[in-house]
Specification:
elongated, single chain, about 375 residues, about 60% helix, mainly alpha
């Protein structure tokens, strides 16, 4: 058969899938099955991905039965999860053994005839990418599970689009993760992708998508719980959370990290000079924080004191075992130097109560100490 004829058959099947008309799809697929050997490996992958997106498992199974091999299958699994086709996703993992982060596998001798690997992965990182997890914002195959259709899906032929339901997608990922369908690297990358999707949904105030962000944050939290209670994923998740604390991070993302991984926020507060200069962000998350190292606790108290945030200081007063006398002294100085006399007085009283003089002797000492600082 000529190249033109096989191209026409493939295009007829693509158009039939888009129509959703079974009376068109069945004969078109039969033609594909009969002439599959006349089509290229790129066409095979494109037809597989379109069949997955259309949502009929039998179409996918029939292609697997007639196609000699697929040089890339991971994007098909991406589409199954994105489009909410749980039965297809399970079959691809269970029966076709598709690796969500799998690399392109081109047989020897055919590489020069096929596009660059990035055309198949849509420039997404795979498990073989040396920069995987280096920058959480870099797209991997998991990233595209949580996005809508663009023109990048079509390897050949016209672009195609199918409806997406982010809630359904996250529900499927959650179920499969709970059933241990994903080994640690994939599990961690799905967590990363969900967090990044939420991060980007909240990035711009004028186009904030809180609904999508909340859906993805709920999934991320569930994956964190699975990690803690079932040991799924690995310690890489902590690193990924820390890497999301970057300039212009939204208050919601920072609050999520502070609430569910307080120690990571405290570590980053000690490490990042720019974060120490963002008192409003710090103020926003104080209620979620827990005691950390003495040095980190002291830094937090000093920042709050320098800004005169008395209410927030009172919120961490329960950290009696985590705040040293030296921490109070540095905070008192910071408050005084910033002309927050009320805060300085409060901290001095707390220090004396916890570390210094009996209560009846505190007043005179307080007046002398504060007087010397405020002169």
């Amino acid at each position: 058969m000529s190249q033109i004829a096989s191209t026409t058959i493939a295009q007829s099947y693509r158009e039939a899938l888009v129509s959703g008309d079974i009376s068109r799809i069945e004969p078109a697929l039969e033609q594909v099955e009969q002439h599959i050997q006349d089509m290229s490996p790129v066409t095979w992958v494109d037809l597989l991905e379109r069949s997955v997106a259309a949502g009929n498992l039998s179409y996918v199974q029939r292609l697997y039965a007639c196609v000699p091999y697929f040089v890339y299958e991971s994007w098909a699994l991406v589409l199954a999860l994105r489009c909410g086709h749980e039965d297809i996703a399970r079959w691809l993992i269970d029966e076709a053994h598709v690796d969500l982060l799998g690399p392109v596998t081109i047989p020897r001798g055919e590489r020069v005839m096929l596009p660059h690997e990035g055309a198949f992965t849509r420039a997404g990182l795979t498990r073989k990418s040396i920069t995987l997890f280096l920058n959480p914002m870099d797209p991997t195959l998991s990233t595209y599970i949580f996005t809508d259709f663009t023109e990048r899906e079509a390897l050949e032929g016209k672009p195609y689009y199918y409806p997406c339901d982010l809630t359904l997608t996250c529900d499927i990922v959650r179920r499969l993760a709970a059933e241990k369908y994903f080994e640690p690297t994939i599990f961690d990358d799905l967590f990363r992708a969900a967090m990044v999707r939420a991060w980007k949904a909240l990035r711009h105030v004028e186009s904030c998508d809180r609904s999508s962000a909340q859906i993805c944050l709920t999934l991320a939290l569930d994956l964190m719980q699975m990690h803690r209670t079932q040991g799924l994923g690995d310690e890489r998740m902590k690193h990924l959370l820390g890497c999301l604390i970057v300039p212009r991070v939204s208050e919601d993302i920072l609050s999520f990290i502070a609430q569910h991984a307080s120690y990571i926020f405290m570590e980053k507060l000690e490490e990042l000079a720019w974060l120490q200069k963002e008192p409003l962000l710090i103020k926003h998350v104080v209620e979620y924080l827990e005691p950390a190292t003495p040095q980190q606790n002291e830094l937090l108290l000093t920042i709050l004191a320098a800004q005169g945030y008395l209410d927030e200081i009172k919120q961490i007063q329960g950290w009696e075992q985590g705040l040293t006398a030296l921490a109070y002294e540095h905070a008192i100085v910071a408050a005084s130097e910033s002309s927050h006399a009320e805060v300085a007085a409060y901290l001095l009283a707390q220090k004396q109560e916890l570390f210094d003089r009996p209560a009846e002797a505190a007043s005179d000492v307080e007046d002398d100490f504060l007087g010397s600082l405020l002169l």
